[in-house]
UniProtKB/TrEMBL annotation:
EC number from the UniProt entry: 6.5.1.8
Matches recorded under InterPro entries: RtcB, RtcB-like, RtcB-like_sf
Keyword Nucleotide-binding attached: yes
Keywords noted in UniProt: GTP-binding, Ligase, Manganese, Metal-binding, Nucleotide-binding, RNA repair
Organism: Bradyrhizobium yuanmingense
Domain of life: Bacteria
Cofactor(s) needed for function: Mn(2+)
Reactions performed catalytically: a 3'-end 3'-phospho-ribonucleotide-RNA + a 5'-end dephospho-ribonucleoside-RNA + GTP = a ribonucleotidyl-ribonucleotide-RNA + GMP + diphosphate
Family matches, as SUPFAM superfamilies: Hypothetical protein PH1602
Protein name: 3'-phosphate/5'-hydroxy nucleic acid ligase
GO MF assignments: RNA ligase (GTP) activity
């Protein structure tokens, strides 16, 4: 049974107020009801009310030390008011030193995706999010695209058979890793009860926007790119500690911020670090397994989290920097940033500049969504998506319309907003993409 649209009633009211029959048809072909054109306005009204209610709640019940009030917020690129309001609400709680919204930012759970906040002696469980350690890894091979172009479709089909995509999947091949022998890490994080399930899930990719990409660079060499996180381990850890901290799950809710030296804070940090190690191990396993399918040797690799908290020094202060959907980009530090499927990705490097310093040495983690998942499925057809990919010579295995390239911004436009903070080293053109199939919903991603 199809769920009712939460914005339909208000959208119909706005449509009537504009003198338009809500049930009249607009657009090409069968079109759509006219009220659908007012959904975005209804959604923005709703989000603004939620953000204002959260701000009032924070002001009434939570006090922030005067020296942390009105901390500077650096915003890259244009954003919806609701995204900026959500970020300001986050920055009204805890020992906040500064904040950043990257150009690919949009609303997230409690803190915007693309949001970066620096805390003094505190860490935000909500800011790190549910998919702890979600990130990207790219590896360059000494294999040339021209040598495998004719068998690329069969290669990506083999990848989809060998790598487990989808919800709650166990890896068909047991992935060994010394992380599972680190008993102290599992005890300190209080996640020992999840260890055996984590063993089975290591090397699984998940669904939604998680992927394995095969790409080629300017010199014609093949790159493997992957995007996913810590799977059920991270989601279970985040859920457990969010509840323990009295936090809430939702969009416009106050973030759960804990002291680094509290019992809860120490255990959460241990759980976050464990999940981060697990995410790194999973991405490394998948890249190596795909390399075995393609052949060749790795000549360069770039690997980074974009949902994590790091201990960093900024302006002489020792801080926790929480990045939610943002890539670390210190001077000389490389990062892999994907576009949408069918769009070019990049290997970039941080540079030193006043703008980079104001960004807390952070940059985008992707192109950023223009339309939510439900809206993308309503707006676009499979034929449109397939045509987009065919024109770019991309073979796709899996995926649904919610990941259509048309639902995303264009990566060059987003990167242009961060000019002077990063430089592009390689542009990577995808030729094959594997993702989870249609209808998959993944509770273990943020």
């Amino acid at each position: 049974m199809r769920r009712p649209d939460p914005y339909m009633e208000r959208a119909r009211e706005l449509c009537l107020a504009a003198g338009v029959d809500p049930d009249s048809r607009v657009g090409e072909g069968r079109g759509q009801p006219a009220w659908c054109l007012y959904k975005d306005a209804a959604r923005k009204e709703h989000l603004a009310r939620e953000a204002n209610a959260t701000a009032s709640s924070i002001a009434a019940f939570r006090t922030q030390d005067a020296r942390f009030q009105n901390a500077p917020l650096k915003v890259f690129g244009p954003h919806e008011e609701a995204t900026i309001a959500q970020m300001r609400n986050c920055m009204a709680i805890g020992n906040v030193v500064s904040g950043v919204i990257c150009a690919d930012g949009h609303l997230g759970y409690a803190q915007p995706v693309g949001g970066v906040i620096a805390y003094e002696k505190q860490i935000s469980i909500s800011g790190v999010g549910f998919d702890i350690g979600c990130g990207n890894m790219a590896a360059r091979l000494d294999t040339r695209f021209d040598d495998i172009a004719g068998i690329a479709p069969s290669i990506i089909r083999d990848v989809a058979k060998v790598i487990s995509f989808g919800v709650g999947r166990a890896n068909a091949e047991r992935a060994e890793h010394d992380l599972f022998d680190d008993g102290e890490a599992w005890r300190e994080s209080d996640m020992e009860d999840y260890r055996q399930k984590a063993v089975k899930q290591l090397g699984t990719v998940g669904s939604g926007n998680h992927y394995v990409d095969l790409m080629r660079d300017e010199e014609g060499f093949v790159w493997i790119g992957v995007h996913f996180g810590s799977r059920g381990l991270g989601h279970t850890s985040a859920t457990r500690y969010l509840k323990a901290a009295g936090g809430k799950d939702g969009m416009n809710v106050p973030p759960a911020v804990v002291d680094e030296d509290s019992e809860l804070g120490r255990r959460y940090i241990a759980a976050m670090q464990l999940a981060g190690r697990y995410a790194y191990a999973g991405r490394e396993w998948v890249v190596e397994r795909v390399r075995q399918i393609i052949g060749g040797s790795v000549t360069e690799s770039v690997h980074n989290h974009h949902n994590y908290a790091w201990r960093e020094t900024h302006d002489g202060k020792d801080l926790w920097v929480v990045r939610k959907g943002a890539t670390p980009a210190f001077p000389g530090q490389k990062g892999f940033v994907g576009g949408s499927m069918g769009d070019d990705a990049v290997i970039l490097e941080g540079v030193d500049s006043p703008e980079a310093k104001a960004s807390l040495y952070s940059t985008v983690h992707g192109a950023g969504r223009l339309f939510g998942r439900r809206e993308a499925k309503r707006r676009f057809s499979r034929e449109e998506m397939d045509r987009w990919l065919n024109e770019r010579g991309v073979t796709l295995i899996g995926a649904d319309l919610d990941e259509s390239p048309m639902a995303y911004r264009r990566l060059p436009d987003v990167l242009a907003q961060h000019a002077g903070t990063v430089r592009v080293l390689h542009t990577l053109r995808p030729f094959a993409v594997a993702m989870a199939g249609e209808g998959e919903f993944d509770p273990w991603k943020d």
